[in-house]
Every structure is written in C-alpha cells, then in structure tokens.
Amino acid sequence: MSTIVEAIDLRKTYMLGKVPVEALRGVNLKVEAGDFISILGPSGSGKSTMLNLIGALDKPTSGVLRVGGVDIGRLNDNHLAEVRLKIGFVFQFFNLIPRLSAKANVELAMSIADMNSAARSKRAAGLLNAVGLKDRMYHKPAELSGGQQQRVAIARALANKPKFLLLDEPTGNVDSKTATEIMSLIHKLNREHGVSIIMVTHDQKLASEARRTVHMVDGEIESDLVN
Amino acid sequence: MKILDILRYAFSAIKLRKFRAFLNILGIAIGIAAIVSLLGITAGLQASITGELTQGLSANSLIVMPGGDSSGQDSPGFSIGLSGSGSGFNLYINQTSDIESLSPNITSAIAIIQRTGRIVSDDLNRSVTIYGVDYDAYAQVYPSFSAESGYIPVNPQNDDIVLGSRVVDPAQNGTQFIVPGDDVSLLWLNATVLPPVYENYTVQVSGVLGKVGGGFGLAPSDGAVYIPLSTAADFFDTDACDMIVVTLTNSDNATMTEVTNLIKTYYSGQVAVVSSDVLAAVLNSVLSYLQLFLVGIAAISLLVAGVGIMNIMMVSLIERTREIGILKALGMKSRTVLMIFLGESVILGFIGGVVGVVGGWVIANGVTWVLGSGLLGIGGNLSITPVLSPLVIFGALAFGVGISVIFALYPAWRASKLRPVDAIRHE
Known about the structure:
The structure holds two protein chains of two kinds. Chain A is an alpha/beta fold.
C-alpha cells in the first residue's frame, strides 16, 4: 500500500494580530491508500489547520507534509493548485456554485483539469447517477435538498479521480436521516471502490464510523486508534 | 482550463447579474457611440467638402473673397457662409468686368451673392441659403448646375428661380413639396433697418437641380435656392457680392500665381484669393483638429465608463470571494482566476463596443439627416453622408475592449491573489 499523506513534525503558527498562535505543534501522521480515517477534536484543537494543510490550501510553517508523495511546503501556488486537483474536497456547507446546475458543477471540476467537453459530460452524468441523483442533474443547488447538494459535492469531489476524499464535517449541515445516507454513501465508496477517506469532525459518534480515529487536542495528536 | 471554458464560465457569471452587466455595457457603448458618431460625421463632412470642391469647382478657378490679408493664400481667413463680414470692405458686382480685363489668362469672373433666408410655400417653410448668380455664367463654371426637372431660365429676361434637390424633398425620400411651375415666397431678415423686417417676394420655380451634395457655398448644393444676380441685388438691396469666382485659361502654377497677384493688387491686398486645392487643404486641416478635439472628449467618457467597470468589479470581487475560494480548492490556478475576470471584462467590452459602433452609426446618420433636413431651424443646406471606415469600426471595438480590460486588471489581479484558505470560509 502506498502512503497518501505523511506528516513529520508538522507545525503551523498563525499570527493573530500580533500574537503568534501555535495551531499545530509537531504532528506526525501517516495515512495509507484505501484507509478511512477521521481527525477528531474540539474547536481550537488544530484539526481545521490539518484539513487546510492536507488539502494544500495552506502551507506549513515547518516540518514536512507529503501529499501524494510531494512535500507541499516546497511548492509554489501553481503547483499547490495542481495538488488540489487530485484532492476531492467535500465541505460542510457544500460549496457548490449556485448559478450552475448539478451536472455543470461536477463538470466544472473536470474543465479545470482540462478534460474535453464530451468526456466530462459523460463522466458527470455517470457520477451523479452513482450518487443517486440521476433525475436531478439539471437542477440548480437551490432546488436541491441539503442531502442532495452534498451528494453533488461528493460527485464533484470524485470527478478528477482524486487520490483521496477530504471531508470537512460532511454531515454537519443535514438532518440525521440524511446524515446516515451520506455516511453510507461514503462507506460504500471506501469499501467497494477503494476510495481513501480523510474526514475532519468534532462529532465523536461520526468519527467512530471511520476505521481509524486520530484525536487532536491543542495542536497535537493525543491518540491514534483503530476503531 | 481551456479558453472556451473560461469564456463560458465568465459568461455565466455575467448572466447572473444582468442589470449590472447592462450598466457596464451601456457605459462602454455610450463612449464608443460618441467616438464613432463624431468620427463618422466629421469624416463625412470632410468627404463632402472635398467632393464639392473637386466636383463643383474646376482646378482652373480661383475664388476671391473679402477679408484677406497680405499673406493671402496661406491663411485665407475666409468667411464662407457668412455675409457682410463687418470689415467694411466689400467686393462689388460691377468689378467683375474690371477683373476680366486684368489678364488675358482670365476667361470669366462671376459674382455671387449669398444670404441665409427662408422659403415658404403652401406645404413648406424652411431655412435655405439663397444665392444670387448669373445662371448662364454660373452653369459654365459649375457643370453640376443643371436642372433635373423643369429648366434653368435664361438671364435676364426671366427671373424665375432654381432650387436644390433637398429644398423640394427635405427627407430625400421622393416626396416633392414643390414642382417647377409652383409659386413660392422667399424671405430674408433685413437687419439694416430698425426694427428688423422680413423682406419677401413671390416668384415662380422654373427648375430643380439633380442631387449634388455640398452645402459650403463653394459650388451648387442640394440645400440652396438660386435667384438671378440682378434680382438678388434688388431683393437684398445691395451692389456688393460675397465672392467672385474667376476662371482661368489653364491651371498651371505660374498662371494661378500671376492672376492671384493681379487680383490682390487690384483690391490692395484686402481679399483672399484661393484655389480649390488650397481651400480643400485648409478646410481639411481645420476639420482634422476639430475631429481630434471632439474624439478626445468622447474618449474621456470611455475612461469614466472604465472607472465604473472597475468599481463594479471590486464589488463583485467581494461578493464572489467564496466562489473564488471554491474554484481554487477545485484546483484552479491563480492565472485562470485572473483570466475569468478579464474574460468577463472582454465580453462586456466587446458587447459594449458592438452596441456602441451600431449606435454611433445610427446617431451619425440621424444628426446628418437633421442637419440636411432643416428641421430644428438649423442647417438645412448641408448635405453630408457619414463615413465609417473599417479602421474606425475595429479601432473603436478594440478601444472599448481595451478600456474594459485595463480597468479590470486590478480587480482581476486581486481576485487571483486571494488565498484559498481564507476565501473559501468567506461569508
């Protein structure tokens, strides 16, 4: 099995006004392909910072963070964008483009990756079909329920065949029944399609659904347990 | 991201805020329309003057007008279209025979009286330029002085009058308000007496000229009324004339210079003597400066539109911060974000440019139509066709797009530099 994410003594310090805030204080973590891990912690624990760094949205202050084998601390903006192309983000607030239909949202991700129009249309339809939105492809996000929007977001995250899915409180904004459906879709992707999953959450119960839970407190990993 | 996909995405963003886009386009379109219409009208004016001079006035004629100075040809200081320049110096009708006898190189000298007046019939009341000319001599100098309907009377037995084509058909659409044989009244405002009074006389129309354009008083024009010279002298109560056109045996430089000097000497240097070439050159250079000035003002209005675009883009940037964060999280490069914003400005600038070019063309035609129709009490004797060259069309389009892009550069750059980690959490 190959390693998709590897952190070695990872540190991140923010300046909050003039006060330095140590969000990460030497994190060591290794995630293998095919794994399903959750990063659990209360607010201020550094889990959001972990998410930003693993998602190549931000760069570490020191230490090494390899995402898909490359140290993102050494990359410029352009190369970071290329790394993000191979990461499937799923956000708490869906973050779909409101003016685009479900299908166009999924296609957008592929057009950013320079895929041609015919191929992306076909793949977008296939992905939306797979997440159970065959009949809702041409609806705009505002015309979809929260659960449906999150399915579109998952389809979009899968569009460019990512190395892993990076989920940020994926059920934080839907009701519990929908949350169960979303989680079972994620389990299915992991189990049946071998998609690696990294999920960041503050929800103990949700975190326990993963195969492995990394518990963060005060910018450090407190425990790293297989469920 | 492919260019076509970038433009498509940019267009979807524009469509979302239609009214805002409309205002942007309007700003650009107004500026472009102003530039295009001004260029079209002034270029039409130039073409019209050049055409009148080259068609109407043969190369072997000289025009003598009052108000000259010793430098003569280089700065004629002419007062075309104005009568009674107020200098106190006048040309007189009876001086033509003196001028004819100045040199064997002179074949003829004809006097022309020119006044602004009105023509009134049952169906028509409009401003015109009235010319008092000797029909026979005038027709010899200007071949375009020939009747399309009716006839040109023989002097001096018959004092019927001749009208330009636009006088009888102001809209130039074939509806003729006057035909040969009709009686019309001519009026002019006599301001030499107090209080000023309208002098008028009623006369029969004998002929209507074919369409010749013009309107600058240098050759037959569509907006003119021609009456016999002797009638004009009586009607306007004057023995002075506004210009004398001298025809020479040939057009070589030596002859032209010789005759010019003879005429100047005869008038003690108080006249301007110009050839059609010189006149055209001077008028064109004056118009060129005018054109530059007007278009400069119009260009400033485009800058204002550009500032408007920048303003709206800055607002849009804040509204779309989160969208930019999403795009970057999906792997979009900063350069592509920049191109999307610039793409929006290119689309807006291009649409504004096209609308502006079409609008400017319509305005130019409208303005020249009004100038030619004599409505609003202005013009009425000018016959101008706006000229729009491909250079102007593409130049205006490029200018519209260019302004739009230049003012979008800064907002687009700001958008591209947003940090994805901040942008995506922007509320």
